[in-house]
Amino acid sequence: MISNKYGVFIAVTGLLLGLSACQSNPGKTVYESSPQTRPEMNVSDSGVHSFTLGNGMKVLVKPDHRSPVAVSQVWYKVGGSYEYAGVTGVSHALEHMMFKGTEKLKPGEFSEIIAANGGSENAFTGKDYTAYFQRIASDRLELCLENEADRMRNLQLTEAEFKKEIEVIKEERRSRTDDSPTSLTYERFNAAAFINSSYQQPIIGWMEDLDSMQLKDLSSWYQTWYAPNNATLVVAGDVDPLQVYQWAKKYFGPLTPSKIEPPKPRREVEQMGERRIIVKVPAKVPYLLMGYKVPVLNTAKNENDIYALEVLAGVLDGGNSSRLSQQLVRGSEVASSVSAGYDLYARQQSLFLFDGTPRDGHSVKELETAIKKQIKIIQNKAPSKKELDRVKAQVMAASVYEKDSVFYQAMQLGTLETVGLGWQKKDEYLQKVQQVTAEQVRLVAKKYLINDGLTVAVLEPQPINAAKRKASATTGGRHGR
Amino acid sequence: MISNKYGVFIAVTGLLLGLSACQSNPGKTVYESSPQTRPEMNVSDSGVHSFTLGNGMKVLVKPDHRSPVAVSQVWYKVGGSYEYAGVTGVSHALEHMMFKGTEKLKPGEFSEIIAANGGSENAFTGKDYTAYFQRIASDRLELCLENEADRMRNLQLTEAEFKKEIEVIKEERRSRTDDSPTSLTYERFNAAAFINSSYQQPIIGWMEDLDSMQLKDLSSWYQTWYAPNNATLVVAGDVDPLQVYQWAKKYFGPLTPSKIEPPKPRREVEQMGERRIIVKVPAKVPYLLMGYKVPVLNTAKNENDIYALEVLAGVLDGGNSSRLSQQLVRGSEVASSVSAGYDLYARQQSLFLFDGTPRDGHSVKELETAIKKQIKIIQNKAPSKKELDRVKAQVMAASVYEKDSVFYQAMQLGTLETVGLGWQKKDEYLQKVQQVTAEQVRLVAKKYLINDGLTVAVLEPQPINAAKRKASATTGGRHGR
Q1: Would the CB atoms of A278 and B280 count as touching at under 8 Å?
Q2: Which listed residue, of A242, B116, B431, B478, carries a Cα 20 to 30 Å from A196's Cα?
Q3: From the CA of A86, how many Å to the nearest CA of chain B?
Q4: Both B220 and B309 in a single domain?
Q5: Active site residue A32
Q6: In terms of DSSP bridges, do strands A287-294 and A275-282 run parallel, antiparallel, or are they unpaired?
């Protein structure tokens, strides 16, 4: 699967490629408090407690008592894909500024409080969401909710803090995108693959837009999107759902909702033929990116196609026994690395991606030909039962492993809720994947992996002028900040 | 030069490709009224009277008494390139709605008044401007100013009119873009050539955006941009500048200015390698578009480069004796048509364009190779004195011919003022073009017509399914409306 090689912004969504949901909890959740005190609370078979506050804010709680730790995440329905040209990067910039204090707290004080209580915290901005999280001893959870509620409505955006922070953000862009040949290629690739969809633009924002960004762009963004009725609180870990409910009511309940206008749809225009771009940047190795337009759950006419595409990604690239790895890396040795990936949970139409680096002595063209040959093979002949069983077993295994991470469980709930699918979709995943047939996999390969919907980007390495290279070792900084 | 083949939106800017300005008027304009009554009025050597109203509105008057006709044009600094994704096409849609009545006038009544007075009127939307004009007997000019002032601030935007008009606009898009293979190719070509510049998006708007357009998008656009301090009135023809000044003061003077925020810069990111797209649409003949990133006057570090590019366009394509025509159409017969074009007056960085259709029996690839060969020739050897003299003579001739049209004279003033160059730039044109040397032409060809800044779009004709073709004979409609 496509890993987090594209830097932090993609890293986050990258986690979701091949996302598998929790297995249904065996048996009903044991109520931790008497049922009659929480009439608005629903409990799913998978143990997710959900309720909606009077102001429209959703709260999801997933108890997990294996260790005395809680994760709190506040998800906002806003991110890179909500932006329009000229202010790209504003969601991410605002995410940075959310740590700069409120009427009650000084800049950085929220983070200090969490650290002083032995917790860790951060935030991330994706195409379809912005989220803030803390991981903390479960008896300190209240602190998180209190202060998240505070900065949802009382953020202090000052010119002085903004002036400093925008430079940090630009440095982040330089080190993670402009100085990273593959990230830069990926950015240009997206800009070619999408025309009017907002997936065309980078989450970090074009440097031009960062250069012209003003404090008022951020305050307008904050006013527009940061409201309880545009947010979801997800709490997972060693918690009592009723207690979380009471705290949520206490801290988030009094916040007034906003009138939220949904963003313009910006459904991508139909692609009418192949697109190719060359990206010449100083680099040592070439790099190939190929993307085919595909539907996702949110845009699907036929949900079966989506799960079949998910399994297709697993057949082509799900570990060392997958086809791309076997045939291209170890077999013909044309690639030093090659991957395929698909994010079925994107908010808008997306891409079925291939990327890779040719091995020394082989060209990008050869790698592309080899990938296309693998596509043709699966278009003509359905995968074997053995292959399909492997993919399905991997999905089952992943769903067990992931339970080790309360953070990841919360992340799945937050993502699904925030992209508009509803967190319940998580419970369908395993079953739907198990139902996919070999012939369905062949048919979606034939239907969607076609040249008329293909975009190709080729990184052509240019000589590296050592003197001109920025020393990027100094940038560092926190993840997603 | 690239003609108006791209439909009305490009047609308007198309006029400006190879635009040449009026020759300086020999001698000072004779004052038509006593100078002491117009202290704010300036008169240029070329006979343009200019003044600014107290509310910031600019007024330009170019008297021309050859016939008793006047042209009135109101130019707004807003157009397709001011828009952001999701609301593309809103400037043009608003232009349509500007004919739908005010507090004082019923829908269509302004047009009826002009027609009843023997005049004609219309409007056009470009990338960088929206303009409204009337051509009328000069003794009826006051009518135009009175009613233009009225709709600048008092437009009535009703849901009922919008519902009807948006369908007209969509039909316009279908007939002029979706049913026109070359227009469609040009639209996709721009979307590939530009990434974050607003020249990426079509003036008519993506159909998706027209589908989701709401009345409030238009009223917000109207509130934001339609204000006296964002407009220029240009009057040309058989008029007395002082009288125009008095009327302008009377009708536009009382309008309150708005706080106008300039649009975000959206300077295009540097292109790092060639881009190619294929556009497969039902069509009979293939079509090639090639565009090289070039600066324009507004973005130029060196103005000489801009005028040299202008002359380069003339050498390659300025009538039957130009190189492309001589070598590719009549010489090798590889092309049935081929053109080059450049718009030095664009508001933002633009393209040096080539387009053409291969002759039967020749491929698009051959045409591209032939064009590139011509580029190489001029990159290696400066044009002859004879060629340069031809281009310069053509420019001189054009500047004489164009004086025949008061409309065109007004259009030049309005364009230059509205894209931010200032109308005075018009007076420099002839002299600057005459100063261009053959070596400068060679050098700009070498500097800018390079593969790393090239975008190529190829229309690959698909079989035309007669049954599916829309009958577009029924669309008709007024130019630019």
Answers
A1: no
A2: B478
A3: 5
A4: no
A5: no
A6: unpaired
Instruction: List average pLDDT for each run of 10 residues in chain A, which is 481 residues long.
Output: 30 28 30 47 91 97 94 98 95 98 96 94 96 96 97 97 96 94 97 97 97 97 98 97 96 97 93 98 96 97 96 89 90 92 95 96 97 98 94 83 85 95 91 96 98 98 69 37 35
As beta bridge partners, residue B236 has B62, B71
Task: Give the C-alpha separation, B336 to B325, whole Å.
Answer: 9
- Residue B193, pLDDT above cutoff 90: yes
For residue A263, being part of any structural domain is answered with no
Instruction: Average the pLDDT over each of A43-47, A187-191, B243-247, B472-476 and give the range with the smallest value.
Output: B472-476
Is residue B478, in this structure, part of any structural domain at all? Answer: no
Chain B contacts of A207, Cβ < 8 Å?
Answer: 269
Catalytic residue among A83, A95, A121, A148: A95
Mean of pLDDT over chain B: 88
- Looking at the fold, whether A199 and A286 belong to one and the same domain comes out as no
**pTM to 2 decimal places:** 0.85
Same domain, A246 and A283: no
pLDDT at residue number B7: 29
Active site residue ranges of B:
95
Record: contact B281-A267, CB cut-off 8 A: no
DSSP letter string over A272-334? Answer: -S-EEEEEEEE-SS-EEEEEEEE--GGG-S-HHHHHHHHHHHHHHSSSTTSHIIIIIIIIS--
Q: pLDDT tens digits, residue range B383-404? A: 999 999 999 998 878 877 777 7
| CB of A214 less than 8 A from some CB of B | no
For residue B315, being part of any structural domain is answered with yes
Could you count the other beta carbons within 10 Å of the beta carbon of residue A146? Answer: 16
Q: What 3-state class would DSSP assign to A89?
A: coil
Distance CA A267, CA A226 (A): 24
Domain count, chain A: 2
Which structural domain, as residue segments, surrounds residue A23? 4-251
* CATH code assigned at B161: 3.30.830.10
The Cα B70–Cα B91 span in angstroms is 26
B392 within some domain:
yes
What distance in Å separates residue A14's CA from the closest CA in chain B? Answer: 24
Does the distance separating the beta carbons of B191 and A264 come in below 8 Å? no
- Is B11's pLDDT higher than 70? no
